[in-house]
Specification:
The chain is of the alpha/beta class and about 400 residues long. Helix content is about 35%, strand content about 15%. It has a domain of about 280 residues: Rossmann fold. It has 12 helices and 11 strands. Keywords: Hydrolase.
Length: about 400
């Protein structure tokens, strides 16, 4: 792969002038921006920091600042953000063909419509810091996947194919015009990329926020030395076990009966807003929500002694060619804090190169590097995320007008 250089801002920057191991110059895009940020966040739900790549699911958590509350839903809404109260009730419940309802939250007007796909274990709440700002530019919709938030559960596990089918049905039933601009965070980036590969004519452009891109696990595993490779794999399986345990506890009613005893399965640390904290605990205590989290984690995590997750096997059979669609990948550069520096450096390089390769699947693709210890770039650097979305929206709008 190409080499990385540690620049004056403290971020890894891709040197476009150097070649990879094949002798071919990598093509992550015409422009690389390096933007330093600080702080970490964590997701709806539960868990502890590990060296596992599954930093996107509800099991991998961090803290924004010492003593700060949890994730994006854990900070008071700032000017320009969606008020916290908006997440205390459903917005628009859209009925799918099979009678299930998905919670859709749309703001603003205009086209193309931006559709936001949350990361693993998250729902529409994870876009609180950016959705209202994007609404100043065009219509923007987030939603809760099946079983999450205010959406009805699915009779099926939360797998790549089922998520895509639900999203497609939601867009049709909500009469959302195409082409759309897809925004995907973490595991949501996997879903967005696969949706664009499957329904290419319906997607005008994409912005992926630190996506778990196709081949990302293999890229990281290929550069790890022992004992860290074994540690990485065991952490992934530990995360699966944690999710399974939380599901078991939810089915037994233990999360409702003894929330303080099993806080790591719930909204922990608690949201500063008491009403929303109670609601999040209630949602996360449901077996249906814990099942959605667990089955999604199983689908996107390699099995023991297997480098391919079920979702990755689907990706291996998928042709990703995004033509000339406007496409931006926002990549955090320093997230694997559970690893020693040497191993962390190698893993970060491999992950950034993998995301750069995905960006290169469009002739209009580019990668923006952000020095951040969190994958929640929409919370750590919302201005950058809004700027990237606005750029893609304007390009799609210009093409539609021509």
């Amino acid at each position: 792969m190409g080499e990385m250089e540690f620049d004056a801002l403290g971020a890894w920057a891709w040197d476009l002038g150097r070649s990879d191991s094949t002798g071919e110059r990598p093509q992550p895009g015409a422009e690389i921006m390096v933007i330093p940020t600080g702080g970490t966040f964590h997701a709806k739900g539960k868990g502890t920091m590990s060296v596992s790549l599954k930093r996107a699911n509800a099991l991998v958590l961090g803290c924004f600042l010492a003593g700060a509350p949890a994730m994006g839903h854990a900070h008071a809404a700032s000017p320009g953000e969606v008020p916290t109260s908006a997440y205390e009730h459903p917005q628009t419940l859209v009925t799918l063909a099979d009678g299930r309802r998905l919670n859709l939250f749309c703001l603003g007007s205009g086209s193309p419509t931006v559709v936001m796909e949350a990361g693993g274990g998250d729902d529409s709440l994870s876009f609180q810091a950016v959705q209202a700002r994007v609404a100043n530019v065009t219509r923007v919709c987030s939603y809760d996947r099946a079983g999450m938030g205010f959406s009805d559960p699915s009779p099926y596990p939360t797998t790549l194919m089922h998520v895509i089918a639900d999203l497609h049905g939601l867009l049709d039933r909500a009469h959302i015009g195409r082409p759309i601009v897809l925004v995907g965070h973490s595991d949501g980036g996997l879903y967005a990329a696969f949706y664009a590969a499957t329904y290419g004519q319906q997607v005008g452009g994409m912005v992926l926020i630190d996506p778990d891109s196709p081949g990302l696990d293999q890229s990281a595993l290929s550069v790890l030395d022992q004992p860290w490779l074994t540690t990485w794999r065991s952490d992934e399986q530990r995360d699966i076990a944690q999710a399974r345990d939380c599901l078991t506890l939810a089915r037994r009613g233990a999360l409702i009966a003894k929330p303080s005893q099993y806080a790591t399965c719930l909204d922990d640390p608690p949201h500063h807003d008491a009403a929303l904290h109670h609601l999040l605990d209630t949602q996360l205590s449901r077996p249906t929500e814990q099942s959605a989290i667990y089955t999604q984690d199983v689908d996107t995590t390699p099995a023991a002694n297997n480098t391919l997750s079920p979702a990755e096997k689907v990706f291996q059979a998928t042709h990703f060619d995004f033509g000339d669609k406007p496409f931006v990948i926002l990549s955090g550069t320093n997230e694997q804090s559970g690893l020693p520096l040497a191993e962390r450096t190698k893993v970060n390089q491999a992950m950034l190169a993998n995301q750069a390769e995905l960006a290169a699947r469009s002739s209009e693709g580019r990668q923006i590097l952000i020095d951040s210890s969190t994958e929640y770039l929409q919370l750590a650097k919302p201005d950058v995320v809004v700027q990237a979305i606005t750029e893609v929206v304007e390009k799609v709008r210009k093409r539609s007008a021509s």
